[in-house]
Amino acid sequence: MTNTTEARIETSTVCNYRCNFCPHGLGLFKRKQEIMSQDLFEFIVNKIKIEAPQITDITISGFGEAFTDKNIDRKMLYAKQMGYNIHILTNGSLLDNEMLDFILKSIKPLDLRFSLHTINPATYSKMTGSTYSDFHTVINNINYAIRQKENTRIIITVVVVKENKEEWKQLVKEYKDKIDLVEVWKPHNWLNILHYRQCEKLKRTCGRPFNGPLQIQVDGTVNMCCFDINNQLLLGDLKEQNLKEIFNSEPYISIKKHHKEGTVMKSNLPCRFCDQLCDYKEAVVYNSAFTVETRLGRTSTTYDKLEA
């Protein structure tokens, strides 16, 4: 089994946005759009607690907007009560002051990460397929979170495409001294679905088969990697298997072997096309706290352990 201390649980594959750089918005996401039941979420958290005691952090993320789930507050609270540190990713459009108060006072996540790509409402609407009203809701929610937060880190993630190729600089100017972190990235390729990042130099491995995080999909299946949005690297099913069985399965052993031996590019694995296997420093356009070398290759938990 991997050495990870983080489990990422995809609670929803439903998204209220249609971003023009995202497989969801481009119609390339092929899995069923659904929301994880409360029973399945609790079953998974309980299983992790018993079978992977080294895991200390649960990230609420996946290929959907977490807050399309009307029970996401119950799920987060359950994980919190089970003793886990919580990380949350959201586009911020479905939050309100009441939910933010609950998150910041009751869940107390280590970080609350907003996707915000510009502070120009017209550009934002064009990039995300949302309304001007959505934009102002997100801005209000970010500013409210800044005022109300205690120990939670507020993070903004920006993806740079042609529409905001200069405007992101104004966003950085607006927020870099108000929040804990601003990150600006080139979009992912999502294995080989899109082609935003070009390889500079290949690495033997991205490290995920050894270091995780543990990626649990909305239906309870376990995938090798969050970048594999259509489950081409499926390892097993937590509803029917325990974690030991999954990490002794043929798919995992094969993936781990190729990554260990540096033969991924000679294999039939879908990850042979993945930009995470590339030493591509231009993927990080800007980071308000860390250098490119520090940020690349880090996951939520390993990154949080760094000091700026």
Overall description:
- The protein contains eleven helices and ten strands.
- The chain is α/β, with parallel strands linked by helices.
- A ten-stranded mixed sheet has the order 9-8-7-1-2-3-4-5-6-10.
- Strand 7 and strand 8 (221-223) form a beta hairpin.
- Helix 2 (72-81) runs parallel beside helix 3 (97-107) and helix 3 packs parallel to helix 5.
- It starts with 5 loop residues before the first strand and ends with a helix.
- The model has no long low-confidence stretch (mean pLDDT 91).
Give the low-pLDDT segments: none
Number of E-state strands: 10
Number of contiguous helices: 11
Q: Indicate the radius of gyration in whole angstroms.
A: 19 Å
Tell me the helix content.
25-40%
Strand/helix succession:
EHEHEHEHHEHEHEEEHHEHH
Q: What structural category characterises the helix and strand content? A: alpha/beta
Distance, first to last CA:
31 Å
Q: What form results from the Cα inertia axes?
A: globular
* Largest sheet data: 10 strands, mixed
Strand percentage lies at: 5-15%
The gist of it:
This protein is an alpha/beta fold and 308 residues long. 31% of the residues lie in helices and 15% in strands.
What is the secondary structure topology, with strand pairs?
Elements (H helix, E strand, L loop, with lengths): L5 E4 L28 H14 L5 E4 L11 H10 L3 E6 L6 H11 L3 E5 L5 H8 L3 H17 L4 E7 L8 H8 L5 E5 L22 H4 L2 E3 L4 E3 L10 E4 L5 H4 L3 H12 L22 E4 L4 H4 L4 H5 L4
Parallel strand pairs: 1-2, 1-7, 2-3, 3-4, 4-5, 5-6
Antiparallel strand pairs: 6-10, 7-8, 8-9
Provide key terms for this protein.
15% strand, 11 helices, globular, alpha/beta, 10 strands
